[in-house]
Structures are given as structure tokens and as C-alpha cells.
Design brief:
This protein is an alpha/beta fold. It has a single domain (17-276), classed as Rossmann fold. The chain is built from 10 helices and 8 strands. Strands 1, 2, 3, 4, 5, 6, 7 and 8 form an 8-stranded mixed sheet that branches. Strand 2, helix 5 and strand 3 form a beta-alpha-beta unit. Helix 1 packs across helix 2, helix 2 (38-50) runs antiparallel to helix 9 and helix 3 packs parallel to helix 4. It is globular. The termini are far apart. It binds S-adenosylmethionine (SAM). The site of S-adenosylmethionine (SAM) has 21 residues, from helix 1 and helix 3.
């Protein structure tokens, strides 16, 4: 018999407000998932009204996360991952990619979305090397002391810290560069940091598109999504040595094969990079 004390107990009451769009569910809608409501699909439609191929923002971002994980699992000795803003479970999650290449890999996911907490947590915590914490990823001081994080991640050993597709949704007062610096200061030397972010290329060709998508996101029922500049995004990796090719369009960061199809304009508006702490 299973002792009741060992049963997983949801930490937060499940309250899902279906009149408000949520970042995790909107992202799921962009990825053609099933865990979203009409209000989330409304955000997707609004962004598509200015950028018909807007789904590529999410697809390219997710594929970058998968390739970044694969790179770290196969090219470094890292076996621990702190994945901030895990999102809803989808086809290939960080722990599946990392554990396939290195079965010793441990992953701690962090997300505060009620739907992710309610059922995503159960799906993501697939084995005893994969854990979940319902904490705020924009409060690094608190997250770094989080019980689940401290229990499963050894900060004396290098780790991979991911902030993929998260910081463009942060609308607090603190500079996002400062949030990342706090995380990076806590990492041991040899750690890797992966970030992806909506991007304003500041070119005549694509800046207008970035501004229009931002306008749609920010004034939608989701209410967030800022397209930052190269200088702002490079500032999210303070003190790190960038792995080549540095901060580039997600689609161009070590793609799986040759790009023979012309990139869609939206693909120039999402970038990512991996840095290593010296
Ligand atoms: N990292 C995944 C990826 O790149 O595929 C998911 C990205 S999704 C766009 C952003 C995630 O961050 C959502 O699941 C959302 O719930 C989560 N998130 C946003 N703000 C958060 C916060 N303050 N604390 C914890 N999670 C947050």
C-alpha cells in the first residue's frame, strides 16, 4: 500500500481563470498544443494578424532549447539543469533530451502557471531525476534558496541554467540584466547559461514587424512580450564567454541542417545564445 504521506500533493490551489490568457497556455497554442483556451488562441490570432507565420516564434524558440540541451548534454560534463519557466509539457522536454544523451542528467523545472503546476508537474516529474518547483523565476534570490532547487542541484558543481522565452514576459522594475547577473553570480565556474528572447533587430526591414508584434502581445489579454535590442539581450549574459556563434536568430543557432527555405521575417525577431562562466 502507498502511504498517504508519499502521495504527491499539489502545493498551490488550482484556480484557472479562463477569462485571462496565460503565457504558458498562449505558448502552447503557438506550438499547436491542446492545453489552451479560447482566450489564449485569441492572443495567437491577434499576433498572426500582423505576422501570419507568428507560430515560428515559438517553434524556433523551442527547437533552440532542444538543440541547446543536446549541445550541453553531449559536449560538456554538465549533468544538472535548472530550467526556469519550463512551460507546459510538449513533444521534447529538457529532461527527455538530456537524459537520452546522458542518463545521469538531473533537471529541476520551475514554473508558476497554475496549469503547469496542476498537470504539467505530474508529466514533467517523470522519474526521480526530474523535479519541479512552483516558484517565481524573476526572483533569483528566493529561487536560489528554494528547497527543491537546493535539494537536487549542487551549486558546487557546474550546472546549466536556462531562461528560455521567459525574460521578454518580465515587466517588473528591476532590469532583467540584473536578474540574470544575480543568477550568474551564484553559479560555479564552468556553468552554462542559455537564454532566448524576442528581438528587435533595429533594421529597416524587421524593426517595424517587431514593434507591431510587441504591440499585439502587450495589448492582448496576455499583456506581455517585449522585443529587446541586441545590446539589451547581450547584457543578459554578464561576465560569460559566449559559445559561438553568440547571440543569433534561434533558427540560426547550430541548425539541424542546411537552411534552403528563405527565413520568414518573424524568424529574425527571436534570438538565443549560450554562455559559459569562466
Ligand atoms: N522555457 C520554455 C521554452 O522555451 O520552450 C517555455 C517558455 S514559455 C514562453 C514561458 C514560461 O515561463 C511559461 O510557462 C510561464 O508560465 C513561465 N513564467 C512566466 N513568468 C513566470 C514567473 N514569474 N515565474 C515562474 N514562471 C514564469
Amino acid at each position: 500500500t502507498v502511504c498517504e504521506a508519499e502521495m504527491p500533493v499539489p502545493k498551490a490551489p488550482v484556480h484557472i481563470d479562463t477569462t485571462k490568457a496565460s503565457i504558458a497556455r498562449v505558448y502552447d497554442a503557438f506550438l499547436n498544443g491542446k492545453d489552451n483556451y479560447e482566450i489564449d488562441r485569441e492572443v495567437f490570432r491577434r499576433v498572426k494578424s500582423v505576422a501570419p507565420e507568428a507560430a515560428l516564434l515559438a517553434v524556433d524558440n523551442r527547437n533552440f532549447l532542444i538543440r541547446a540541451t543536446r549541445f550541453i548534454a553531449s559536449q560538456t560534463n554538465i549533468t544538472q539543469y535548472l530550467d526556469c519557466g519550463s512551460g507546459l509539457p510538449t513533444a521534447e522536454n529538457t529532461h527527455q533530451v538530456a537524459q537520452r544523451l546522458n542518463p545521469d542528467s538531473k533537471v529541476v523545472y520551475v514554473d508558476n502557471d497554475p496549469v503547469v503546476i496542476a498537470h504539467g508537474r505530474a508529466l514533467l516529474e517523470e522519474n526521480d531525476q526530474t523535479h519541479f518547483s512552483a516558484a517565481d523565476i524573476f526572483e533569483p534570490e528566493t529561487l536560489l534558496q528554494d528547497e527543491v532547487v537546493r535539494k537536487h542541484i549542487d551549486f558546487n558543481e557546474p550546472l546549466a541554467l536556462f531562461h528560455m522565452g521567459t525574460l521578454h514576459h518580465y515587466d517588473g522594475q528591476r532590469p532583467p540584466q540584473d536578474i540574470m547577473k544575480t543568477y550568474i553570480d551564484a553559479l560555479p565556474s564552468g556553468s552554462y547559461v542559455g537564454v532566448s528572447h524576442f528581438y528587435d533587430p533595429q533594421t529597416e526591414e524587421y524593426s517595424e514587424l517587431a514593434r507591431r508584434m510587441e504591440d499585439m502581445f502587450v495589448h492582448s489579454p496576455m499583456g506581455s512580450g517585449v522585443f529587446r535590442t541586441r545590446t539589451e539581450i547581450e547584457g543578459l549574459f554578464p561576465g560569460l564567454e559566449m559559445i559561438e556563434p553568440g547571440v543569433v536568430e534561434c533558427a540560426r543557432w547550430w541548425p539541424d541542417g542546411p537552411q534552403i527555405k528563405p527565413m520568414d521575417p518573424v524568424q529574425y525577431c527571436i534570438v538565443g545564445g549560450i554562455g559559459r562562466k569562466p
